[in-house]
Design brief:
Elements: H1 2-32, H2 51-69, H3 73-83, H4 91-125, H5 128-169, H6 174-195, H7 199-226
Helix pairs in contact: 1-2, 1-7, 2-4, 3-4, 4-5, 5-6, 6-7
Length: about 240
């Protein structure tokens, strides 16, 4: 029992710690964009934002890597142990989707953390004919991550995970379960918007995910640190 209590506390604090990293990503993205109102709908604005913006975006994507993904890995396993007895047939599927979401998202963030600073700084010092090459590489690589890895793969996996675990936890933790379901549905909406070219729906889903996912992580983390609200099964 003591080991379980310690595990929940550690996972809870890691989940809480993910929140400032997530909002650091959000904040640095805004600073790098110079509070540009179109920064989320026109990502290619950053190619012209200068070397300093490229440096800020490196740290923004590294914060994204930790805040929205890697620090949630222990929580994915803990949720599995917590809910597997309540939904033994589907919980393994949901956990697979949760882990796949975390790792696919991490890959995308790691790619952007490496290539954006290089491309932005190179573009700033290149002659016009070479700028076009940088522009093509930037557009294609960014679309690969935003449209492919995140838009198609990550949002589908994350949506399935959140909707699945939300319905499973709802009888025991009604409020948290409902918020989890809402987060999953909106993430699936972002996926659908990306697939069907509905840009406004995709953008609304993305922005809601960026704000609500850290709120959900904080709520879950607080519940785990308190230690009495979530009882997990032995692995």
């Amino acid at each position: 029992m003591e080991q379980q209590h310690s595990f929940k506390k550690i996972v809870g604090w890691l989940t809480i710690i993910s929140v400032p990293f997530a909002f650091t990503n959000f904040t640095l993205t805004g600073i790098a964009g110079g509070n540009n109102s179109q920064e989320f709908s026109d990502l290619y604005f950053y190619l012209n934002a200068g070397v300093e913006a490229g440096y800020l975006m490196k740290w923004s994507w590294l914060a994204d890597l930790l805040g929205y993904y890697l620090l949630l890995v222990p929580a994915v396993f803990l949720i599995h142990y917590w809910l597997k007895a309540k939904n033994p047939y589907w919980m393994s599927v949901f956990t697979f989707c949760g882990l796949a979401y975390v790792f696919s998202g991490s890959i995308g963030a790691a790619i952007l953390a490496k290539i954006w600073p290089t491309l932005i700084s190179g573009y700033a010092s290149a002659d016009e004919p070479i700028k076009e090459i940088y522009r093509i590489v930037f557009i294609n690589s960014t679309q690969m991550v935003y449209g492919g890895i995140w838009g198609y793969l990550e949002f589908l996996l994350a949506g399935i995970w959140w909707v699945g675990i939300g319905f499973t936890m709802k009888p025991e933790r009604k409020a948290l379960g409902i918020v989890t379901i809402i987060l999953g549905v909106l993430t699936l909406a972002a996926f659908a918007g990306e697939v069907f070219g509905l840009k406004n729906i995709a953008l609304i889903g993305l922005m809601t995910y960026l704000i609500l996912a850290p709120v959900w992580a904080f709520w879950l983390g607080i519940s785990l640190v308190r230690g009495k609200e979530i009882q997990i099964e032995n692995p």
